[in-house]
Amino acid sequence: MGGILEGKRILVAGVTMDTSLGFAVAKVAQEQGAQVVITNFGRALSITRRIAKRLPVEPAVLELDVTNEEHLAGLADSLRAHVDRLDGVVHSIAFAPQEALGGNFLQTSWPDVATALHVSTYSFKALAMAALPLMQHGGSIVGLTFDASVAWPAYDWMGVAKAGLESCARYLARDLGPKGIRVNLVSAGPTKTIAAKGIPGFEQVESIWAPRAPLGWDADDREATGRACVALLSDFFPKTTGEIIHVDGGYHAMGA
Ligand code: NAP
């Protein structure tokens, strides 16, 4: 086969449905030769186990709530039952309470903001550290953002969480670089997933994207994002870290 991830072991955290961006990453990674382990948490875990059968090869499914210190502490050992090392980790996780989204920005209370930041920002560092024991030979960590350099309708505190994630990725790149670990983000355009549906008013952002993106944009196309993540996991970006790669049809580069 000779795919670009041949022989690599990849953890994809945050797969619920086959619409999840994490599912697209796992699928392309397997097609490119990787052995993949996926995670999800809580009640949706049974859905993930069913959805896992739709991947080209049914992967191991582990439970990981990124806010649960015990889950994080046990991750390396749980992984060792399936892989002897990790070459890559994908963080495809975000959550914000409804009160933190959809135009309620000025009224949102700290506990709701704290939840958004814990799950969507701090967890990137937490996941990286939990996986580190299996990455002693170096590797690649990839996360997913939505352009946090500007304010968007409806995105609200998730936008603030993403700005934090983008900064977090740069600090992780600084501290993990000496261990041979690259840390990068893919900034995806608006895509129809459960997380996106949970943001009241986000359709407005979706509708402006396609006409303005020079390459056009299809909110049902997850493969483009999956491929970019896989490219970053591969050996074809050996000197790239602390970077944000846009997979948005070129939207971010246009002034109007
Ligand atoms: P998704 O399918 O809903 O994936 C988000 C995942 O995060 C779900 O599997 C969810 O699990 C998981 N999650 C939430 N809280 C968690 C926790 N405490 N511990 C572990 N996992 C948790 O939606 P998605 O759009 O593919 O999101 C994946 C990533 O892409 C996110 O970082 C998102 O911000 C980013 N992104 C999305 C878009 C877009 O337009 N969709 C654009 C740019 C970037 P449950 O389903 O069980 O809650």
TrEMBL record:
NCBIfam families: PRK07889.1. Belongs to the short-chain dehydrogenases/reductases (SDR) family. FabI subfamily. Its EC number is 1.3.1.9. One of its GO terms (molecular function) is enoyl-[acyl-carrier-protein] reductase (NADH) activity. The keyword Lipid biosynthesis applies. It comes from Thermasporomyces composti. Signal peptide: none annotated. Substrate binds at residue 96. Keywords: Fatty acid biosynthesis, Fatty acid metabolism, Lipid biosynthesis, Lipid metabolism, NAD, Oxidoreductase. CDD domains: ENR_SDR. It catalyses: a 2,3-saturated acyl-[ACP] + NAD(+) = a (2E)-enoyl-[ACP] + NADH + H(+). One of its GO terms (biological process) is fatty acid biosynthetic process. It comes from the Bacteria. This is Enoyl-[acyl-carrier-protein] reductase [NADH].
